[in-house]
TrEMBL record:
The lineage of its organism: Bacteria, Bacillati, Actinomycetota, Actinomycetes, Mycobacteriales. This is (2,3-dihydroxybenzoyl)adenylate synthase. Residues 445-519 form the AMP-binding enzyme C-terminal domain. Pfam families: AMP-binding (PF00501), AMP-binding_C (PF13193). It comes from the Bacteria. Residues 31-393 form the AMP-dependent synthetase/ligase domain.
Length: 531
């Protein structure tokens, strides 16, 4: 496979010797659960529920259907399905056909998908039909472009295209594939809010480890019920431990399609959900909703929050309203996962973003010159390890920038390592505002703004200014009546925020624009506010 950077042989051997990589293909996660607990509920959505044996059989049927179409053996296929049992059928069906699923999110649109098609050379796309957007029409537009796309497969009304449910109808048994587990099992898409999204090849070996070790760390067991609240194709709900991790222990996975507190709380109550993963904006909303929703989550024992920085005040609020079992997760589709541990003290749970999953995760925290910074000092996080990629898929120029010569991934995240070994994320290397010769950390300012009782969400961005270079704009969602710039700055004054770090303007917004997984999308904010 061209454009895939494998792990170097010496490190691969070390990870095998140390027991991280077991040589199991990713679809084994389902096969082995089906052997151990055939009659246990595996996946549930609003329309259906399958036991492990049923899901296993359906994945086989899907694989046979895909192979009959000529899709298999290294072919890439874009998967853009809503959270549903069919998401799981499609993922395992593709794996068993020997195809390479590209995990798109329902929020992706023409520009992103066209890019994924071009880079992956995908021959097929599997889309759904609900969710208030015409995914089928988008797939048709993509088919007309110059790419390798040949098959549009639709779960729902397929029109002239291939019906997913018909494709899955047979009872064919695909022949047992011999898989090289050091090769990619699937392609994730990068969550970056800057530049074109990149494709991230995750190998069978590293992703099986990712899911299995995460489930172990979170102490998941077969009695757990995991709710997929974020888009299922994102690494966090997919494998940290998410859907795949839940399967490694034979737990039950519930697919939610509406993460609003009202809908999600009802789903949690109906199915006795014990664990889920959210981005901070949703966790904050769920915690606030406990004030007005009658039905609150009572069964949740593990609430993972990650994808962006969770403010300490929000962490405390989440723990007091939703569950004391808050877990902060600092992760990336490229690999590295940091988790707080279940029995960590309050200080760690509320003020840090966890520590690495694996003993063999190698972290460096460096300054602009690439020199290691002293403990507790912020610097850029570089990482390599048993489940961190060694290069983006078919992105030579990007790889030159994003990886050091000895194979460390430059995360672009600014962190400090505390004496406890835990990390605190202090911002993005590039998420700074350059105002009149000063460098202002956007994350820092946002965390101060969020402490004002009238501020529901905040994003600090730099806007061009003829005198200052950039001026500081605070895009803010207010609870009720907007607060003036003067009043906000008074509040920042009482918190001891330096004068040059205070906003020059406030832009009230009904909601902050978000990326496909629900993180604040600053590029769009700047585009909206630029004069
Ligand atoms: C997760 O993955 P991605 O690929 O969508 O985004 C990764 C980036 C990180 O590089 C970092 O900038 C940011 O998202 N991030 C956080 C964070 N968790 C992720 N920033 C501050 N605090 C955190 N806790 O977002 C992701 C993947 C797996 C598990 C969890 C999150």
């Amino acid at each position: 496979m061209t454009g895939f950077t494998p792990f170097p042989p010496d490190r691969a051997a070390a990870y095998r010797d140390a027991g991280y990589w077991t040589g199991q293909p990713l679809d084994w996660v389902l096969r082995s659960a089906a052997e151990r607990r055939p009659d246990h509920p595996a996946v549930i959505d609003d329309r259906s529920r399958f036991t492990y044996a049923e899901l296993d059989r359906r994945a086989d049927a899907a694989a046979a259907g895909l192979l009959a179409l000529g899709i298999g053996d290294g072919h890439s296929v874009l998967v853009q399905l809503p959270n549903s049992c069919q998401f799981a059928v499609a993922l395992f069906g593709l794996l068993r056909a020997g195809a390479l699923p590209v995990m798109c999110l329902p929020g992706h649109r023409d520009a992103e998908l066209a890019h994924f098609l071009e880079v992956s050379g995908a021959v097929g796309i599997i889309v759904g039909t609900d969710a208030g957007f015409d995914f089928r029409a988008m797939a048709e537009r993509l088919l007309e472009r110059d790419n390798a796309l040949r098959h549009i497969i639709v779960d729902g009304d397929a029109g002239p295209h291939i019906s997913w449910s018909q494709l899955c109808e047979g009872d064919g048994q695909p022949s047992q594939l011999r898989v090289d587990t050091s090769r990619p099992a699937l392609l994730l898409v990068s969550g970056g809010t800057t530049g074109a999204p990149k494709l991230i090849p995750r190998t069978h070996d590293d992703y099986v480890y990712n899911a299995t070790a995460s489930a172990q760390l979170c102490q998941l067991t077969s009695t757990d019920v995991y709710l997929v609240a974020l888009p299922a194709g994102h690494n966090f709900p997919l494998a940290c431990p998410g859907l795949l991790g839940a399967m490694t222990v034979g737990a039950t996975v519930v697919f939610g399609t509406d993460p609003s507190p009202e809908a999600a709380f009802a789903t949690i109550a109906r199915h006795g959900v014990t664990a889920t993963a959210l981005v901070p904006a949703l966790a904050r909303l769920w915690a606030q909703a406990c004030e007005w929703e009658e039905q609150r989550p009572t069964t949740l024992r593990l609430l993972q929050v990650g994808g962006a920085k969770l403010a300490a005040d929000d962490a405390r609020h989440v723990r007091s309203t939703l569950t004391p079992g808050l877990q902060q997760v600092f992760g990336m589709a490229e690999g590295l996962l940091c988790y707080t541990r279940i029995d960590d003290p309050t200080e760690i749970l509320e003020h840090t973003q966890g520590r690495p999953l694996a003993e063999h995760d190698e972290l460096q925290i460096v300054d602009d010159e690439g020199v290691a910074v002293p403990e507790c000092e912020p610097g850029e996080l570089l990482v390599r390890g048993p489940y961190t990629i060694n290069g983006y898929f078919r992105a030579e120029a990007e790889n030159q920038r994003s990886f050091t010569p000895d194979g460390f991934y430059r995360s672009g995240d600014k962190v400090r390592r505390l004496p406890s070994g835990y990390l605190e994320v202090t911002g993005r290397v590039k998420d700074v505002i350059l105002r009149g010769g000063e460098t202002i950390s956007a994350l820092d300012l946002e965390s101060h703004l969020l402490t004002h009782p009238a501020v529901s969400a905040a994003a600090a961005v730099g806007l061009p200014d003829p005198y200052l270079g950039e001026k500081i704009c605070a895009a803010i969602v207010f609870r009720g009546r907007p607060v003036s710039l003067a009043e906000l700055n008074e509040h920042l004054d009482t918190r001891g925020v330096a004068v040059h770090c205070r906003p020059d303007m406030v832009a009230p917004m009904p909601a902050l624009p978000t990326t496909a997984v629900g993180k604040v999308d600053k590029r769009t904010i700047v585009a909206q506010l630029r004069p």
